[in-house]
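Final report, closing paragraph on structural work. Over the funding period we assembled a curated collection of sequence-structure pairs, and we close with a single example.
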Amino acid sequence: MNVTVTGGHGFLGNHVCRELMDRGHKPFTSHALLHDLTNMTQTQEMLASHWPDAVIHLAARVGGIGANKNNPGLFAYQNLAMGLNIIEACRIFNIKKLVIAGTICAYPKFTPVPFKEENLWSGYPEETNAPYGTAKKMLLVLAQGYRQQYGCNFTYLLPVNLYGPHDNFNLETSHVIPAMMAKFHYAAKNNASSVTLWGDGSPTREFLYVEDCAKAFVDALERYDGPEPVNVGSGKEISMKDLASKIKDLVGYKGEIHWDTSKPNGQPRRCLDTSKAKKLFGWQAETSFDEGLAKTYEWFVATRRE
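Its predicted structure, as stored:
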């Protein structure tokens, strides 16, 4: 298939495009410099430029707790606008298949662990990323509505926190694993006596190696045509304290860790039930956490300009 990947130059998009090519598909990527997906005219121009068989919608405005807290309106508007325009443009162009990336942030703050897809509407998301999470969750409502009214084959996946090579290691906008790796790396290099991390270290998170996630999206493209959202994750959780210790040891940092409890923890726990992905389209995570962390740090060190 000819497949347009929005956000194809981004972290997950880069790996999805490689996976598509490995399976014989022809990926086309969109770029914000060429087509602003918050603009409907430019979104349609993007599809008209090569009229694909299918679209994988990954383009998003994302960031960690700090970025979400500082940009709630921007994150809500841009993610909703991009998704709205992609969904409507795919209907207009009669695109055969659309796979939409949702987010773990769409789940309610106190969702029972492990998160099941049917828990998605049982409460409000955690406050620091609720605008982003709610905007992305609205894309599921649109996809199901378009399926019901127009017969569109639009599906929706809920990937957990990702990590791996080509991630964003900018301390102002990065997610937790690249942020910790960068902090510990530079602290070790500069012989800093301590590293300060946000919160109290008690929250848990689940992480998925980005290449495994890329396979999930291509598997869903090829084999899943259902209306229901599907979790994509490793099914394993780790506390922030344990994660920090693991990354500290990997980097070789010998100093202390200080937890800044004036900063928000975020959602208390995150861990997905991923049984539907295996049942519906045969996908499950393959990369162990230690292996994935080692590959990620190896890439980070190899690409630094210091």
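The chain is about 45% helix and 15% strand. The first strand starts at residue 2 and ends at 6. We thank the funder for supporting this effort.
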